Structure to design on (312 residues):
């Protein structure tokens, strides 16, 4: 399950508590109208990521042959898992966001309380367990391991050179969750898991590109931050292009016109973005190219959804 890649957890006030374990004054908001608190809670879950990942995996489940009921179960499991991860991320980073004056963050600006977000995160995680297992023990275990990886990222791995690992595990296990929940419980093909893992690593690097300088100033030392802005910008399209290549050549059958076209476009983007990135340009081209490449990889994965359960 993909984690969320923003401010890093720390100790004391940076973890959202002071030395005595209390929530800092900046996070204690006055009484809120219920509607405003709900709106703040929704903003704290990282809605774009929640919607995008839930829609992607639900579409993949439909493409793999899951019926309407099965797709609803997949959507509910992924949605609750994503909500738990998003709320966990904002709760862990609440102190740092408040100290940095992040008025766009609901916890930092007082739109919702820290206790509310923490309870919502735990409640979503509790719902995620039975909803995941409803697709079968093996499928549920695959999904829950991905969710656990995302929580581990939020709670500390994001500060280390292994910051990419939870993304690789979370994205790599999503095709497994879908395949193992289908009739016959087939193991997912290696190419699907590999493509998911590569897509996750690319998503991690791409996601932190806009904030690398701020992260370094705040002491965030994940893999992209250790590489530095220039090398991270050049690296971002590489795992995404590799995911596209795996999705073109991995599934059974010929690559086809769509596959070759996807490789041509994403390969050209990878080469073109490496030049300005290596030169230290501050162009947004590497970031935008990585987004296009990621979108192409997602489209290829969904297009080959029926191959997830193929026994060939």
């Amino acid at each position: 399950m993909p984690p969320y890649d923003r401010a890093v957890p720390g100790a004391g006030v940076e973890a959202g508590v002071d030395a005595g374990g209390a929530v800092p004054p900046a996070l204690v908001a006055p009484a809120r109208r219920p509607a405003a608190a709900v709106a703040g809670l929704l903003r704290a879950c990282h809605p774009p990521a929640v919607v995008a990942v839930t829609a992607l995996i639900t579409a993949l489940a439909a493409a793999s042959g899951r019926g309407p009921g099965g797709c609803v179960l997949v959507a509910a499991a992924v949605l609750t898992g994503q909500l738990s991860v998003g709320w966990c991320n904002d709760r862990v980073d609440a102190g740092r966001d408040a100290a940095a004056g992040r008025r766009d963050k609901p916890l930092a600006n007082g739109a919702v309380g820290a206790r509310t977000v923490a309870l919502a995160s735990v409640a979503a995680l509790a719902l995620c367990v039975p909803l995941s297992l409803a697709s079968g023990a093996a499928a549920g275990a695959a999904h829950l391991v991905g969710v656990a990886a995302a929580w581990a990222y939020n709670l500390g791995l994001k500060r280390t050179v292994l910051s990419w690992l939870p993304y690789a595990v979370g994205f790599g296990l999503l095709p497994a969750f879908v395949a193992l929940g289908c009739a016959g419980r087939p193991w997912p093909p290696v190419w699907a898991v590999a493509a998911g893992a590569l897509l996750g690593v690319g998503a991690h690097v791409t996601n932190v590109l806009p904030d690398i300088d701020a992260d370094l100033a705040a002491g965030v030392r994940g893999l992209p931050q250790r590489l530095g802005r220039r090398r991270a910008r050049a690296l971002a399209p590489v795992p995404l292009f590799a995911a596209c290549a795996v999705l073109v050549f991995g599934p059974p059958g010929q690559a086809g016109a769509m596959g070759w076209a996807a490789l041509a476009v994403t390969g050209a983007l990878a080469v073109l973005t490496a030049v300005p990135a290596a030169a230290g340009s501050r162009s947004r081209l590497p970031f935008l190219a990585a987004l296009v490449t990621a979108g192409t990889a997602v489209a290829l994965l969904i297009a080959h959804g029926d191959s997830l359960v193929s026994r060939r």
The CA atoms of residues 251 and 307 lie 7 Å apart. DSSP finds 14 helices and no strands in the chain. Residues 6-31 have pLDDT under 50 and may be disordered. The two ends are 27 Å apart (CA to CA).
